[in-house]
Automatic annotation (TrEMBL):
Keyword Phosphoprotein: no
GO cellular component, one term: cytosol
UniProt record, GO biological process: aromatic amino acid family biosynthetic process; chorismate biosynthetic process; shikimate metabolic process
Domain Shikimate dehydrogenase substrate binding N-terminal: 13-95
Protein name (database record): Shikimate dehydrogenase
GO molecular function: NADP binding; shikimate 3-dehydrogenase (NADP+) activity
Pfam families: SDH_C, Shikimate_dh_N
Residue ranges of every copy of the SDH C-terminal domain listed in the record: 242-271
Pathway in which this enzyme or protein is active: Metabolic intermediate biosynthesis; chorismate biosynthesis; chorismate from D-erythrose 4-phosphate and phosphoenolpyruvate: step 4/7
Length: 279
């Protein structure tokens, strides 16, 4: 009995709101497939003010944490080190607790985007378009820094957002040009379109999908498909979904937290699809 208590490991996702998160479903599916019967994965509603106290109370049974909004930047001063990937966008979505007690922050969203695109045959593009600005758009830019050899056009709603995207481009060494959202239909002709906007924002663009679209990466997964993704598929274009991203970034988290590889991506994907179908 004592051995079981010592061997049991814990992980969780933190954020606000958190009730909708699929992370518990994905991580638990990985534990089941890997035979990690003593591992558990929970979710906690958490804001920035509560985060320091929560971290201080964690015991040695904790292997790691997944972080969503609004904690991805708030956690940075609370960790001992962060990866270059996380530092590049000032966002940590993964904290792993080392054996010596150090808290190590990383960002699996960026390599998760690259892996999701690679799974769909996209390893390099000569240009791309981003719909939207903000935290997800900056992660998209960081992913494009790895696979895009030319210009990235970001379609935004304000000059403030445009300036932010240009600054991210300079920081990430990506050739970024900004355009007004009123011209967003032009984005749909790019070799790769990454939609980072909230649900419903791109619905009006569905009618502008070209006859032979290339690849759409829509980071949403609920509701799915979006009107844009459905129209894109109808016209024969390749579609990468938010669930693809969620699964790939979760695979990297499970690898870091458990030290196990390979991680059962397909089992995690099936669990995510089943959970979404039940909503």
């Amino acid at each position: 009995m004592v051995s079981k208590v010592v061997d049991a490991r814990r992980a969780a996702v933190l954020g606000s709101p958190i009730a909708h998160s699929l992370s518990p479903v994905l991580h638990r599916a990985a534990y089941d497939a890997l035979g990690l019967t003593d591992w558990s994965y929970d979710r906690f509603e958490m804001d920035e003010a509560a985060l320091p106290g929560f971290l201080e109370k964690l015991g040695p049974e904790w292997a790691g944490l997944s972080l969503t909004m609004p904690l991805k930047r708030a956690v940075i001063p609370l960790v001992d080190e962060i990866s270059e990937t996380a530092a590049s966008v000032d966002a940590v979505n993964t904290v792993v607790f080392a054996e010596d007690g150090r808290r190590i922050g990383d960002n699996t969203d960026i390599p998760g985007m690259v892996a999701a695109l690679r799974e769909h045959g996209i390893e390099q593009v000569d240009s791309a378009a981003i719909l939207g600005a903000g935290a997800t758009a900056s992660s998209a830019l960081a992913a494009l820094a790895r696979i895009c050899t030319g210009e990235v056009v970001a379609y935004v709603r304000s000059e403030t957002r445009a300036a932010e995207m240009r600054q991210w481009g300079e920081r990430l060494d990506v050739d970024v040009r900004t355009a007004d959202w009123s011209d967003a239909a032009q984005a749909l002709r790019a070799p790769l379109v990454i939609a980072t906007t909230p649900a419903g924002t791109t619905d009006a663009l569905a009618a502008a999908v070209p006859e032979r679209p290339a690849t759409l990466f829509d980071v949403l997964y609920d509701p799915w498909p979006t009107e844009l993704a459905a129209r894109w598929s109808m016209f024969g274009g390749a579609v990468v979904s938010g669930l693809d991203l969620l699964v790939h970034q979760a695979v990297l988290q499970v690898e870091q937290m458990t030290g196990r590889s390979p991680v059962p991506l397909e089992a995690m994907r099936r669990a995510g699809e089943k959970a979404l179908a039940a909503r």
